[in-house]
Write a structure and sequence with these properties.
The chain is mainly alpha-helical. Helix content is 75%, strand content 0%. Helix 7 crosses helix 8 and helix 16 runs antiparallel to helix 18. The longest helix is centred in the first third of the chain and has 32 residues. The protein binds tryptophan (TRP). The site of tryptophan has 16 residues, from helix 1, helix 2, helix 10 and helix 14.
């Protein structure tokens, strides 16, 4: 039955695709406002600590499972003769649809903002007027759904091209473009008069702002940002050959992801301070505060367009990674890649419609904790689905297939101290931390 499994053209291609998955709205939209709300540098230090211990360990665990089994997230566990653990893969597919449903809606806004920036829609407006325009746009019925559809269609187009011809090729072009745009924006941001205040806020830690709930927020953000806990990285790892050094790969992906989050903060926060805006504006930071900053800044017209192009690229290389695990699984069930991709894409688009409507026509419908579809989907992802998926993956690698995992990472030699530390984190530290996210997220424990 086995058709030859697709593979990456090169290890660099894998790194670009996996970094493309990791680097997304989470880095550029969410990270800067979370840092803004949670004490700037102090949050960053905690975030870094989490990424390079728990985050990195889980990333390596996912790559290990994928590379060893050369299988999608459901069949991988069957190959270990642990079919019950296939639940992780099924959960991953459900999670992919849930994330896609709100991710593609927000990504649709970014495409709309490329158009609005280019047509000068915010010209002459202050932050309040831009806020009204944003509110009017997201609460309207048709437009945001059309943009969500355009974004979903772009995602489908890339995934149709396959692993090396579609995902890898797109990532190898788009990721360097993303870096260049980001660097241009950082240079612009930090050279604005008055940017120092923002730099200081971003780079000098105020530990008094750190509470247990900040730590939980950093942990949840690290999972989301690194694309962990739903089998994306596992699936991408399954397209790697045996010769690739997976420890080094995991480290490089985590490093790139973190660099982009920090650069995004450096691009955004100094500019926000330079124009006396509020760094703790929350989710509206990107769609309200920033356009106002661009309006006021020399060259703002140009920088606004490239900023939203950047955001769209980042979102696209992430959304393809949400679709791919679904396609990968259905390709083993007798569907062609084309059928699986179009089918999953259409379904994901339909599931996203309620999220889009939840900010307008359907704003009275509450799903979880009084929240509409979009916020509920995001809450469910951050607080339940990714932590549960991540917890199971840690336990599986740390306790169930430990010797296989160690061999996969270190070959036949004696495992190094780092590999031992990795297993220790997977066995104890990460599970405890994740259970804490679950307990606080469900408000069983309040901090
Ligand atoms: N990591 C992406 C971001 O930061 C989002 C994302 C893509 C994701 N694929 C994922 C998150 C899989 C969790 C799991 O925007």
């Amino acid at each position: 039955m086995s058709i030859k499994r697709e593979h990456w053209g090169s290890r660099l291609g894998f790194i670009m695709a996996a970094a493309g998955s990791a680097i997304g709205l989470g880095n550029i939209w969410k990270f800067p406002y979370m840092a803004g709300e949670n004490g700037g540098a102090a949050f960053i230090i905690i975030y870094l600590g989490i990424v390079f211990t728990i985050g990195l360990s889980l990333m390596l665990a996912e790559i290990t499972i994928g590379r060893h089994t050369q299988s999608d997230a459901i069949n991988a566990f069957k190959k270990f003769n642990k079919p019950a653990w296939s639940f992780i893969g099924i959960l991953g597919i459900v999670t992919a649809f849930v994330i896609f449903s709100f991710y593609s809606v927000v990504a649709g806004w970014t495409i709309a903002y490329v158009v609005k920036s280019a047509t000068g829609a915010f010209s002459g407006m202050d932050a309040a007027a831009i806020g009204d325009t944003f509110g009017g746009f997201v609460s309207s019925t048709v437009q945001p759904i059309v943009y969500h559809g355009i974004f979903a269609a772009l995602t489908v187009l890339v995934v149709l091209g396959g692993v090396s011809g579609g995902i890898e090729r797109a990532s190898k072009i788009l990721m360097p473009v993303l870096f260049l745009i980001l660097i241009a924006l950082v240079v612009r941001g930090v050279t604005l008069p008055g940017a120092e205040k923002g730099l200081e806020f971003f780079l000098s830690p105020d530990f008094s702002k750190i509470t247990a709930s900040t730590v939980m927020a950093a942990l949840g953000q690290a999972f989301f940002s690194l694309s962990l806990g739903m089998g994306v990285i596992l699936t991408y790892g399954s397209y790697l050959g045996k010769e690739a050094n997976i420890g080094r790969s995991a480290w490089q992906i985590a490093l790139l992801d973190t660099m982009v989050a920090i650069l995004a903060g450096l691009a955004i926060l100094p500019a926000v301070f330079a124009f006396n805006m509020d760094p703790a504006a929350g989710p509206g930071l990107t769609f309200v505060t920033l356009p106002a900053v661009f309006e006021a800044m020399p060259g703002g017209y140009f920088f606004s367009i490239i900023f939203f192009v950047l955001l769209t690229i980042a979102a696209l290389t992430s959304s393809i990674s949400l679709l791919e695990p679904i396609v990968s699984f259905f390709s083993t069930k007798g569907f062609t890649r084309t059928q699986a991709t179009i089918g999953a894409g259409v379904l994901a688009f339909l599931i996203g419609i309620p999220s889009s409507l939840s900010l307008g026509a359907w704003s009275d419908i509450h799903i979880i904790k009084g929240q509409g579809f979009l916020d509920s989907a995001s809450w469910l992802t951050d607080k339940i689905l990714l932590p549960v998926g991540g917890l199971l993956i840690c336990l599986f690698v740390g306790w169930v297939i430990t010797p296989i995992a160690i061999r996969e990472v270190s070959g036949e030699g004696e495992p190094s101290a780092l590999v031992k530390a990795w297993i220790f984190i997977l066995r104890f530290i990460a599970p405890i931390a994740i259970v804490m996210i679950l307990l606080t997220g469900l408000e069983i424990v309040t901090l």
